[in-house]
Amino acid sequence: SVKGPNGIDVASTADIAAAAQVRSLVDRTKWLGEMCCQANGQENEAEHPLHLTVRKAHVLADSLKVVTKLDRSELCRPWKFEIIDKDKTGGWKSVGTEDNWVQSLAEKMFHSSMGLWLPGAVGGSAMRINPASDAIPGDHLLYFHFFGRILGKALLEGQTIKQPLSQHLYKHILGWPITFGNTRKMSVEVRERLAEMIHGFFDVIPEPLLAVLDVEELELLMHGRRDKALL
Question: Which residue intervals define the domain HECT in the entry (predicted)?
Fold first, then answer.
């Protein structure tokens, strides 16, 4: 079951099982979002956006710092990113907002200069975790926890990321059985990074609620084919 901040059940095991049997993915996705907000204490405040300010030259670093400090209730509120930059006098001014913040952050996270992700072996499109990401400056595990929160937020708000992840990563998020081939190829380093990413994801989407989705549905919802998924 999933409990709210007051310790009362938001969704019982029976509720989750019943929701998983609903044929319409539209209805299941809507139910998932409603339960997430209730579980995070945002049932009555979801319409009030949380304003987050980041510097134009440091969008990723500032987003990391801000998002990793948010509590569960703030993770469920709509986010509005405001980008600021220095003006001619040396002061700060607003230079716009970032509406497609998920894709913008994902592109920065996936960039080869970050050293966090690698293109997949098959076709080079599906991204996989870089086992050597600890070579980057700073706390590389914090980046994966942050990215997990971004993925969870994307699912919650119906935003998409163009670059897909290797499919076995979705299986790990959902707690599905992993084939021997996937397990054999996963190093201790990759497992460590994956665990951080999943923990970040669960900060936004409580793990039991994900039982209403399967692997293909999760992948479709998150990577640019949401309209097709909701037909």
Answer: 71-198
Q: Select the more confidently predicted residue: 208 or 125.
A: 208
Q: Can you read off the two tokens belonging to residue 10?
A: 């938001």
3-class secondary structure, 151: helix
Contacts of 107-111 with C-beta under 8 Å, sequence gap 24+, read 107/163, 108/59, 108/60, 109/60, 109/143, 109/147, 109/150, 110/163
Architecture of the domain spanning 2-229: Alpha-Beta Complex (3.90)
pLDDT tens digits, residue range 108-155? Answer: 999 999 999 998 765 567 899 999 988 877 788 999 999 999 999 999
Give, in order, the Cα–Cα distances in Å from 139 to each of 67, 87, 116, 128, 165: 15, 32, 11, 19, 22
Kindly list the domain boundaries of the chain, sorted by start residue: 2-229
Would the pLDDT of 168 be above 70? Answer: yes
**Torsional sign, CA 113, 201, 145, 100:** positive
Q: In which residue are the tokens 């509005």 written? A: 80
